[in-house]
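Standup, Tuesday
Yesterday: got the pipeline producing structure tokens again.
Today: sanity-check two examples.
Blockers: none.

Example 1:
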Amino acid sequence: MIVTPTFGRRTQAPSPSTLPGQDAALPREPVGSGARQTILPEESVADLRAACMARLDANVIALMAPDRLTTDIERLISEIATERRIHINGREQRTLATELVNDILGLGPLEPLLEDDTINDIMVNGPDKTFVERNGKVVLSNVRFRDASHLANICQRIASSIGRRIDESSPMVDARLKDGSRVNIVFPPLALDGPYMSIRKFGRKTVDFAKLVEWKALTPAVARVLEIAGRGRLNVVISGGTGSGKTTLMNALSRMIDIGERVVTVEDAAELQFQQPHVVRLETRPSSLEGRGEVTQRDLVRNALRMRPDRIIIGEVRGAEAFDMLQAMNTGHDGSMSTIHANTTRDALTRIENMVQMGNMGLPSRAIRTQIVGSIDLIVQVERHRDGGRRITQVTEVCGLEGDVIALNDIFQFEIQGEGPDGRLFGRYKVSRVPPAFLPRLAYFGLDKAWRSAVDDADGT
């Protein structure tokens, strides 16, 4: 059976108070959050685990539902414990049975974390350290793998499920779990402390602007402005750092797309959640083990132009496909959107310019900036602050060229004013009264008065 080699004996993981270095000072989850609580000696647990695995039939297991398998394994553990005179109570039997089922059918000790909707990211730094991000804060969880081979087996199972391999000869892989969560794995010798795994969980609940306002990511007036931008088919780029909430904001913006429009999405790893009935989802493909068959985002964007889209949505621009994105936005596909990693809205434009030059060597900078000005209407900056909150910090209009410099107008600029007793930051938006250059387009959709009203309301929040 595939999982049998991973069930070996290991020494007890160091307790939180004895972890080396600065681990004792790290933010930590309460004991019991994913950790197995048992008074049974580790040697007895390993003995029961190995004996139980030896009696399981892989062909039968594959056909069983998880709940039924858990019950049968729990009964088998009880029988083996009686035979070997190992004292184990009902709670310990159930815990061990659940662990075995998670190892056989799932991702082992990570299963409870994957089921926890309050966790956004899971970061495994070797078998003894698993960090989670909850409510914007990263803490060290109590989850442990038995040893490096146990963790390696879980990683290899993830890679093989998508037809990839992960080992010393191919030590890095990007994958996606069945629920849509993104996974990145790094193996030794690149990973010095054992296999590393990073999981960006796929949100099960759709998020709209009302929910973002509830989370204080923006004010109702700013939300209304972004809703108008979506309905008015403005070309929008969402900028921010890793884990700042770019994809969440794009999902919220996508709810403003009319159900009659044909939308083509291009993603490196599919995670967008559009509600419209006419959505065509495209995803890149890595090269095979022989180094052939790769399909890049640029290939998909070019192909998307031939699919009669009303809007093209690019999950994240990170390379030469930036040029094709600008072409799409400037050739009748108004309302297109994308995300990019950058610290400010000005930095986002600089990154786009650099990425275009990467794929189109020799193209003059002024020509690229002219293309940017003619393509992008709004840049929305999102940021994760030190209190763990994710907020929209800038909504910037791309106005035009002044000489060789792109002129920008910060319609909204978030200014932090202080910190509350609960540690949460608070502030207000500085509002620009300059009419945007795209106001005639909003007037075409009958949204110009709504835009002015929303901006006026934002000035009072």
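Example 2:
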Amino acid sequence: MLTLFDSQSVRYCDGISRRNCLRIGSLGLGGLALPDLLRAEQSGGTKRDHSVVIIYLPGGPTQHETFDPKPDAPHEIRGSYQPISTKIPGVQFCELLPKLAAMADRFSVIRTLVGMKNRHESFQCYTGRPGGRSEDNEPGGGWPAFGSFVSKLLGPGAQGVVPYVDAAPKMSYAPYGNNGIHLQGKPSWPGFTGHEHVPFVVEGEVKSDLVLKGIDLSRLENRRELLSSLGKLQLTLEGGGIDKFQQQAFEMLTSSGLAEALDLSKEPQSVRDRYGKTQQTFPAFGGAPQSPQHLLLTRRLIEAGVRCVSVAFGAWDWHANREGTIEYLSNKYLPVFDHALSVFLQDLDERGLLETTTVVVWGEFGRTPRINAKGGRDHWPGTQSVLVAGGGIQPGRIIGQTDRIGSVPVERPVHVQEVFATLYRNLGIDTSHITVPDLNGRPQYLVDDDRQPIRELIS
């Protein structure tokens, strides 16, 4: 590995900081290094073009006001909004999601997700497991996020870009962030996969360190040192008679391709306008703004070759103890969600990316069937609705059925680990056989209990 150090930053407990230590890849020293992958790609032996997008909805969205309305239930269950027909015969969504309803034949919905805990943290949506407490029985080092596993198993994405990027806006409530912080404040990322598999954080402090060309004057001296180190390495490699694959690997890993993807100003204004403007969410929620531009950024990252992108959208903890009732909150925030997500999926499809990009949209749990005395819905891990699309997933399917009040599955409960098995499968990773050792040296499977991909979505 080539490690580049910058003299200014805060260090991790191991003495190496995320900002100071830019690992730009292996150039052939053992294992299946990037040059080997390039050779394999040219020979047709390896496909590296599939990606996963995890759209996290911080706080846990309501199933009743989105994808599982209960029009025949009492008012305190069904709420104020009516169902509307979708592109799938006999299937209805809430009337506040007309654009998604009109394209429902291009994605699928799981209405019966189970396996989540009543915990306000993103960790469950990024790992498929609970963590941070003694009763969770985590392995040595803690569970890695899905993207960290992907980074370790598959390495850099197309054109050598980093495999795992968190494109979420900044959020004031720490457990919503994609950094493994639990409710007790204990950080866990990236689990037992190691620091080299932490995601690149778009709104973190290292974004500017991606640009190896076009240096900033305030960082000129450090850049000179960095570029000098790269120049010396290149001379060493050239002097050693490297082959074209090693040279290509070096050029890919020292390019500014990811920095280009992060620059939204390179996107036509008509496309930026199509996605729409950001709507801020009530600050007391501690969640993300509703930022369609972050979804556009996500599309650009996928286009650049990133294997896994996580992004947070909105604030969904709708107890009615902040800002307003669920009727008010639904009317304010669901139309923006409807527009942004529908445009994102359409854009992926129009660019030929949806076929190879699996998208999952979910929160950490659902909401109570009964509206509380304040006019909101409380936490409900009994079930939730999840949108899944792309990557070869069968579209236009509704998986599972909840009871008459939307509280528990009565037909085909889908465990969260089945969703992750499906995501791994779409990246070509066999969860039945592959293991990764934890910090105690014990092999750990990627999913628990031999959970399999969701058969209804892949058949």
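Quick observation on example 2: The chain has a mean pLDDT of 84. The chain is about 30% helix and 15% strand.
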